[in-house]
Write a structure and sequence with these properties.
Layout (H helix, E strand, L loop, with lengths): L2 E4 L13 E3 L6 E3 L7 H15 L5 E4 L7 H7 L6 E5 L8 H5 L4 E3 L9 E5 L2 E4 L3 E3 L2 E3 L4 E2 L6 E2 L1
Parallel strand pairs: 1-4, 4-5, 5-6, 7-12
Antiparallel strand pairs: 2-3, 7-8, 8-11, 9-10
Length: about 150
């Protein structure tokens, strides 16, 4: 069994195909997802890549933002291999019962934005929010080491 971590899949989120970013060193703006012609192609590619690595016996921790599209959950989640566990993100907006159909365990921490360390697995502490240490901000940190006692998930 292997333990995997993923976040922000945003299955079915068509607007992701339009998001851009600017390279701070060159000033050039580029599309974040230029390789996909449609949201369906993006979803299918993510499903294929997930299942190419995650075996049915593996554990996978999804650190939030599975999808904002209710119809997509029933179309995508049954196709993803592994024992799935969810740390609810700010875009996981549906009733918890919908997620329990596909996730064996769920932890929710809505409302906290600073340091929110919630679950512990093999000595790694997982979180959903930006971590700050000594005045430095580590943006979009999905896992960090700390002495904070977490909750098992």
């Amino acid at each position: 069994m292997t333990i995997w971590f993923i976040s922000d899949t945003h299955f079915g989120h068509a607007n992701l195909l339009n998001f851009t970013a600017t390279d701070s060193s060159t000033g050039l703006t580029y599309k974040l997802r230029p390789e996909f012609a449609s949201v369906e192609e993006m979803d299918e590619t993510m499903i294929e890549r997930w299942n190419a690595r995650v075996r049915p016996s593996d554990h996978i921790y999804h650190l939030g933002d599975v999808t904002m599209n209710k119809r997509v959950i029933d179309r995508v989640m049954p196709r993803l291999q592994g024992h799935k566990r969810l740390l609810v993100g700010n875009h996981d907006i549906f009733p918890t019962g919908l997620y329990f159909k596909y996730f064996e365990k769920i932890a929710a921490t809505r409302g906290k934005r600073e340091v929110d360390l919630i679950c512990q697995s093999n000595g790694a502490y997982l979180c959903r929010w930006v971590l700050k240490y000594g005045g430095l901000s580590l943006e979009q940190v999905e896992a960090g080491a700390t002495a904070h006692p977490g909750f098992e998930i």
